[in-house]
Amino acid sequence: MAFNTTRWGICLLMLLSVLPSVFGLYFYLEGSESKCFIEELPKETMVSVHYTAEEWSEDSKRFIHNKDIVMEVLVDEMPDGNRIFSQKLAPKGRFKFTSAESGEHSICFFASASGWFSSTKIRFTLDLAVTDIMDDMSENDDSTLSELEQRVRELNHKVGDIRREQSYLRDHERGFRDKSEAANSHTVTWTIVQLVVLAITCAWQMRHLRGFFESRKM
Fold first, then answer.
1. Greatest extent of the chain over all pairs of C-alpha atoms, in Å
2. Residue 175 has pLDDT above 60, yes or no
3. What is the pLDDT of residue 97?
4. What is the C-alpha to C-alpha distance for residues 165 and 163, in angstroms, rounded to an integer?
5. What pLDDT digit, counting tens, does each position of 140-174 carry?
6. Which residues contact 22 (CB under 8 A, 6 or more apart)?
7. Which of the four, 123, 158, 189, 217, has the lowest number of CB atoms within 10 Å?
């Protein structure tokens, strides 16, 4: 069983190292409505988001840019609810945040264009990239490096990504093992309690029957 778990973990890490950690999506907001989604992140991971907010125009029957749109982004660690990022943004731009701990993170978006009770429909488009902190710190220095140095740096970053994924998988495995041990412990405890109750019940019944037979002189 341990061998299969290790094998699947290695396959997953190889797949993650090949696939790009970038995805795009869009959704709609109306008035003061909010949208949230959950993203699982390894520890000390940089998340970079390019976004665009467009307002629906009844005159032109399409989504257009409106500089009065105000976007607000909140990022919380789950399930503790520790807030690691909170900022109001322009209708188009980029923001970044770094995960302090591995696990699920709630990313919520709010928008307002003409007041809290606005029924304006807003289309929010974003591209989210998950990278190493060192990647972000060194992205401006790549032009001064030789091709060999860039390749070495890329390999180092990939090794760091794999190590973070391994650490993340170990944390999940440790949590699963703790839950399994706790469940087994509760099962054993409950079984012992049932056996004790059964023994006490049997002893009481035997004593009661003996007293009954003695009173009948049988």
1. 107
2. yes
3. 87
4. 5
5. 455 555 777 767 777 777 777 777 777 777 877 88
6. 127, 128, 129, 130
7. 217
Q: What's the mean pLDDT in 27-54?
A: 83
Pair of tokens at residue 106: 């709630």
Confidence of residue 135 (pLDDT cuts 50, 70, 90): low
Enumerate residues 6+ apart whose C-beta is below 8 A from 134: 157, 160
User: 147-215 vs 2-18: helix axis angle to the nearest 10?
Assistant: 150
The SS3 of residue 146 is coil
Confirm if 107 and 73 have CB atoms less than 8 A apart. Answer: yes
pLDDT range class, residue 23, cuts 50, 70, 90:
low
Tokens of 114: 């003409």
Which DSSP helix (H) or strand (E) runs through 210?
Answer: helix 147-215
For the segment 72-103, what is each residue's pLDDT rounded down to a tens digit? Answer: 899 998 888 888 899 888 888 888 888 888 88
Distance separating alpha carbons of residues 92 and 51, to the nearest angstrom: 6
Which DSSP letter does residue 69 get? -
The percentage of the chain sitting over the pLDDT mark of 70, rounded to a whole number, equals 73
CA 87, CA 48: separation in Å to the nearest integer?
A: 14
Residue 53's identity, in one-letter code, is A
CB contact set of 184 (below 8 Å; sequence gap of 6+): none
Of 98, 105, 90, residue with least CA distance to 51: 90
CB 9 within 8 A of CB 3: no
Q: Nearest-CA neighbor of 52 among 138, 123, 136?
A: 123
